[in-house]
């Protein structure tokens, strides 16, 4: 059998981009052309070529992600925050973890996608919620972006329900109507609803809303919360799509809470944007502050837990908006 010569070309070059505002330096590897020669055997004769492996068979989510997660220690600290007394025009944001936020105005306490669950069926929580559910102030309103288990946790909702309203996408009422809320307000894209001086606008997203396989009728989206000239946008879950430009044009949210994790899911569907796409969405929203979320709590996809934040800093630096990115510490209120 005669050996064949195979030539491969690579490029090797390295540099470390400049990093400011306390961001961690990241190094990138580039390559200068070099030529390598290796001896390879010819393919066997009279043997049919194997069918190319699909993406499903190339990686195993159970062995790569789920099982190691079972043996990982939970990180994070449960804080006991003192919530600020806000002056007119101020708002406070407290990241609870994952996509859960407490939004405060001088007159309202609003929870978005509250979730204190330690397990999402077989997915373990790897970072503690930033505060205990009992340390929450009295909640005036709850917003749910969609019915997925990491955003709508019935046990958490039952614990926070105290005869206040809850806002959900169309088709989600059946999941929350029996939990103790005074009223369930369903919304479709671009619907507006006013409550005690707040204006809530339900915004489009590129995602899906089914909780189980047979309930494709459930809606999904994000919210812009407006009060006395301040506008906060909670994206919910979304892949990057052209709708961010329209949300920016119509509503001009000042602060954008954007997801940056779960961009390598086992389904390989394009349903979550990565850090670089979040920076692009931020640009198209024309917002002033980007607050990242949907990372570091549950490992929902293949990327390492630390990677989304690092990639966001690099993408922000490359786009010249690093100073506009604010990483919140779970359980610590931040006034804006």
Structure description:
The chain is of the alpha/beta class. It has one domain: Metallo-beta-lactamase, Chain A. Helices cover 17% and strands 27% of the residues. The chain contains 7 helices and 17 strands. It has a 7-stranded mixed β-sheet, with no helix packed on it. Strands 11-12-13-14-15-16 form a 6-stranded mixed β-sheet, covered by helices on one side. A two-stranded antiparallel ribbon has the order 1-2. Strand 11 (192-195) and strand 12 (198-203) form a beta hairpin. Helix 6 packs across helix 7. Mean pLDDT is 84; it is low at 1-41 and 46-54.
In a few lines, what is going on in this structure?
With 336 residues, the chain is α/β, with parallel strands linked by helices. It is built from seven helices and 17 strands. 17% of the residues lie in helices and 27% in strands.
Q: What is the count of DSSP helices, taking H or I runs of 4+ residues?
A: 7
The CATH superfamily bears the name: Ribonuclease Z/Hydroxyacylglutathione hydrolase-like
Number of strands: 17
Distance between the termini: 73 Å
- Which of globular, elongated, flat, extended, rod-shaped describes the shape? globular
Topology:
Layout: E1 4-15, E2 28-40, H1 55-58, H2 61-70, E3 92-97, E4 100-104, E5 109-112, E6 119-120, E7 123-124, E8 141-143, H3 154-160, E9 165-169, H4 173-176, E10 183-187, E11 192-195, E12 198-203, E13 222-227, E14 230-234, H5 243-251, E15 255-259, H6 275-285, E16 289-293, H7 307-319, E17 334-335
Parallel strand pairs: 5-8, 8-9, 9-10, 14-15, 15-16
Antiparallel strand pairs: 1-2, 3-4, 3-17, 4-5, 6-7, 11-12, 12-13, 13-14
Helix pairs in contact: 5-6, 6-7
């Amino acid at each position: 059998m005669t050996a064949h010569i195979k030539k491969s070309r690579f490029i090797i070059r390295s540099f470390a981009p400049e990093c400011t505002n306390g961001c961690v330096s990241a190094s990138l590897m580039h390559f200068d052309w070099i030529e390598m020669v290796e001896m390879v055997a010819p393919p066997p004769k009279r043997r049919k070529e194997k069918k190319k492996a699909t993406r499903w068979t190339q990686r195993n989510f159970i062995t790569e992600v789920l099982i190691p997660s079972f043996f990982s220690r939970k990180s994070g600290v449960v804080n006991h925050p003192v919530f600020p007394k806000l002056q007119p025009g101020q708002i406070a944001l407290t990241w609870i973890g994952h996509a859960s936020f407490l939004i405060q105005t001088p007159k309202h306490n609003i929870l978005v996608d509250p979730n204190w669950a330690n397990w999402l069926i077989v997915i373990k929580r790897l970072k503690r919620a930033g505060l205990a559910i009992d340390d929450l102030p009295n909640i005036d309103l709850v917003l749910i972006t969609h019915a997925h288990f990491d955003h709508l946790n019935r046990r958490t909702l039952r614990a926070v329900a105290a005869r206040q309203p809850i806002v959900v996408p169309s088709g989600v009422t059946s999941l929350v109507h029996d939990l103790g809320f005074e009223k369930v307000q369903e919304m479709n894209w671009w619907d507006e609803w006013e409550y005690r001086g707040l204006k809530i606008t339900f915004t489009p997203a590129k995602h899906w809303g089914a909780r189980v396989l047979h309930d494709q009728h459930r809606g999904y989206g994000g919210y812009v919360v407006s009060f006395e000239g301040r506008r906060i946008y909670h994206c919910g879950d979304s892949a990057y799509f052209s709708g961010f430009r329209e949300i920016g044009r119509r509503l001009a949210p000042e602060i954008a809470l954007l997801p940056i994790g779960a961009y390598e899911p086992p389904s390989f569907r394009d349903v979550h944007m990565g850090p670089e796409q979040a920076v692009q969405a931020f640009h198209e929203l024309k917002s002033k502050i980007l607050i990242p979320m949907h990372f570091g709590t549950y490992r929902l996809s293949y990327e390492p837990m630390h990677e989304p934040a690092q990639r966001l800093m690099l993408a922000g630096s490359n786009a010249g908006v690093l100073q506009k990115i604010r990483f919140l510490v779970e359980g610590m209120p931040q006034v804006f």
